[in-house]
Structures are given as structure tokens and as C-alpha cells.
């Protein structure tokens, strides 16, 4: 079952300016799916999404559901943050390396529901979803797995 | 194919006051720097016919700042309008001059009124919309990307905070010998001072991070015929290169620390090849030190030591004044100034060293120098320059 929470209102942290190219990704988040472009020609996953496959430059990529499972590739515990984030310090930003292969995808998001002192490289994590009241977008985050 | 080595030289340099806050406009700092650099060369503003302009914003929102400056400087045709980093920008100006495109180019930057860091940014009234893959979605900034990089680097190579801290200690020591530096007057710091300074984003403490200051600078590049009549000893351009392998702060592909290096390594190889010098020939260097970890990675990627061995190499003292290749003798970005796009500051200090102008921080007999700029996704965008004085 996907982990879904609702953010406190009002949500004052930055949100994405959704482009038509990447709209399928953001719409999928609302359905609690995490979709990564997968090249129909060479099979590589591509993260961050780009208009063409970064391995072979094919424009035939398909938004493919992934498990959401990952491990921490790197992280930082932030003690001084911009704007509305500063109220949350210390908070964690983590790069999660998706378990899907072959091309390794490092996905950046906040890692929540874990003590910052317990975060380490290699920690198993998974994608969770954060619904934003009053906004037409759902955000994603990392949780301990 | 070869670089037109010694066809052009840096003939004038200037740095404005550098400070946490300057009650000036960015334009005014840029103009002051241009005027100062041409005066240093014994030239005038009307001698300038080429621009390397890192600041792409322009009064009246012209798409190319050269258009604004052409009018601002009096309406003479400017025959070089080169965007991009100041460091390889000097080399590109040298190439343009040697190809007859222009005669005297100025490479310049100035910034006041905005900060790089997130400190004190107000809470907005509504969620702002930002680019879809921006670190801003997750409360990050440039420092956070370097923190992710440092964390992974320390994990892969068994490097700790004390290893990083020695960079801050040495660069602060150098700053104490530079009366123009922002931090030199505060005196030296110890490794304990650095690791006990407050954590900004782990593993980077306050003193692991560059300053966030206002200021400007400029460099004037001219051909050999003009250079020989200028006021100062010419600093000849032997080679320079740029390289980019990643987009700006959105993703860094794994592996992060390949043995064969990435942009910095590639730019270095090109430059050493152009210049016909070896790493052992470098007497003095200015390497981009936005964070302590960056300095160690610079040394590795430039090929002065192997990947993962930067801390050990640094600890041996080669880059400290008195060592075999003093680096960042002005205090660098950590203790001199980081004025937004400070890449030219390292080159200017190397120029001053090669001219013999550095007083108590002078490297004796400095003849060949190297500067390195990098940024925008941790070593993702690099530029190198190799220079020599007679």
C-alpha cells in the first residue's frame, strides 16, 4: 500500500511549475504511482526526466511505474533552510538510488519519519506521497523501508 | 592544432572592495572594475573592443549584454561578445585577439544586492512555483548539493571532517596575509574551530563553506604588441579550456568519482597539452574552493594526486605558502571573497603572484600559474587557465 499523508495547510514550500512534457509524472503522483521515463529503444531508465533518453537520445520514452524502493546513495541533514523550510530544521534531503536497473537513478527528495542521526548511506527507503491541500499537485518523499 | 600561446597576455587586473554588503549596484561594481583594470594596464576604456561578460542580465533586458555595454561605452563597435566563465573566457579572448577579431578584451563581473545562500529568506504567502526538478522543492540550495557530494566522498574514501577542515585552516592563514580579504583580519582558525563551527548542512560546517559577499573584478587581455607597452609585466596566456558534463544542480550520475575524472580532468588535460607544461611546472595556483571538499576534489581531478587521496596530498603541505605549489594565496573563496560568480578572483591572484606584487604572501620566483573554476553541479562545469610571466 502506498504511504500517503496530507500536508498541513497552508503549504508554503516551493511546488513544481508543471510542464506539458512532464505532466504524466505529476498526474501519476496523484494516483500514488512513481513513474520514471524508460526508453523504448535501449531500455534505460532516465532520472531526472529529459525530453530524450540520455543514453541513446531516442524520443520514445515511456513513463514506467517503479516499485518506489531504493537505498540512500547520499544525504544531508539541513540545519539552515530557505523560506518555509527553515521551520523544519533539522530536515533531511536524500538521494535515493532506485532498485530498478540497468541505469541507476538517483532521486532527490526529503527523507522523513526517521531521526536525522539514524540516516546513513545504504539505508533502505521507499517513496511516499504527500497531498497538498489547496494545490493541484501531490509531492513525493522518502520514508524508511 | 595548437593554442596561440603567448600571443596574448593579461595586462591589467582589478578587484573592487569585497565585503558582506556593499551599498552599490552590480553595474557600478562592474564599471569600477573595468575602469580599474584598464588603468592598471595603462590603457583607457576607449581601448576596449571585446567583452567576456559572465553577467547575462542586462539593463533594458537586451538578450546579449554586449549590446548594453556597446551603448554604455559610447557606441563604438565591440567586436567580441563572449559569454561564459571568466577563466576559460580569458583563453577565448586570447584566441579571438590572435585571430584578429579584437584587440583589447575585458573579462569582468560584479555583484551586490543578492546572496547565494538561503539565510534569512522570508516565508512566502503562497507556495512559489519552481522548476520541476529543482532542489528548491526539497529545501536545498547550492550548499546542499555540495553536502551530498561531500557525504558520499567521505563515505567512499574514508575521509572525515578533520580532513576537510585543514583546507579552511590553510586558506584562512593565507587570508591573514591579504589585507583586502574579508576574513583575514579575524585571524587564523584551527581544525577544531572548523569542526566545531555550526553545521549548515551535514557534513559541511559554517567554516567549510565559502563566504557570501559582494564585490567585483576585471581582467584586461591584449595581444603581444599592446602588452609590451602596458604598464605591468605581461602575464602570458599559455592555454585554457572549458568542459561541462552535467546539467545545473538537477542530477549527478553515479559513479560520482570515476578514476578517469570528469570535466575538471578533461579541461586540465587540454590545458596542460596546449601549454606544454607539466603539473610539476606549476609554481602557484588558484583553485575553486567554494567548500573545503571542493579543494580536495580539485587537486584530485586536476591530477595532482589520485582520486580519494586529496586530503593526504593537502596534508603534505604542498599547497600552503612555503610548499611546492601554494594555492589560493589570497584566502580563496573560503576566506577572501565569494562574490557570486567569483571565478576570476583565482586568476587575478595568480596574475598578481606572477607579477611579484603579493608582498608578504609572495611565492618566490613564481613563473607559471594555473587557475581552475568550476561549479553548477559540483565539478559539472569547469574552466582552466595556464599563465606564465617572463
Largest sheet of chain B: 9 strands, mixed
Terminal CA distance of chain A reads: 12 Å
The number of helical segments of chain B is: 12
- The CATH architecture of the domain at 8-111 in chain B can be given as 3-Layer(aba) Sandwich
Residue share in helices of chain A?
under 10%
Any low-confidence stretches of chain B, pLDDT <50, length ≥5?
none
In terms of DSSP E residues, the strand content of chain B is 15-25%
Could you describe the 3D structure shown?
- The complex is a heterodimer of chains A (145) and B (390).
- In chain A, a hairpin with a 6-residue loop joins strand 8 and strand 9 (138-144).
- In chain A, strands 1, 5, 6, 7, 8 and 9 form a six-stranded mixed sheet that branches. A two-stranded antiparallel ribbon of chain A has the order 3-4.
- The mean pLDDT of chain A is 96.
- Chain A has one helix at residues 23-30; strands spanning 3-6, 15-16, 35-39, 61-65, 69-78, 91-98, 106-111, 124-131, 138-144.
- Chain A contains one helix and nine strands, in the order E-E-H-E-E-E-E-E-E-E.
- Chain A is mainly beta.
- Chain B is of the alpha/beta class and 390 residues long.
- Chain B has helices at 26-41, 65-72, 86-98, 142-157, 161-176, 191-196, 224-227, 263-275, 292-301, 310-315, 332-335, 343-355; strands spanning 8-15, 50-53, 81-82, 104-111, 129-130, 199-201, 204-205, 215-223, 235-244, 284-287, 368-375, 381-389.
- In chain B, helix 5 crosses helix 9.
- The longest helix of chain B has 16 residues, at 26-41.
- The radius of gyration of chain B is 20 Å and the shape is globular.
- Classes of the chains: A mainly beta (145), B alpha/beta (390).
- At the A-B interface, strand 2, strand 5, strand 6 and strand 7 of A face strand 5, helix 4 and strand 6 of B.
- Strand 2 (15-16) of chain A pairs parallel with strand 5 (129-130) of chain B.
For the structure shown, list the relevant keywords:
heterodimer; A: 145 residues; mainly beta; 1 helix; 9 strands; B: 390 residues; alpha/beta; Peroxisomal Thiolase, Chain A, domain 1; two-stranded antiparallel sheet; 12 helices; 18% strand
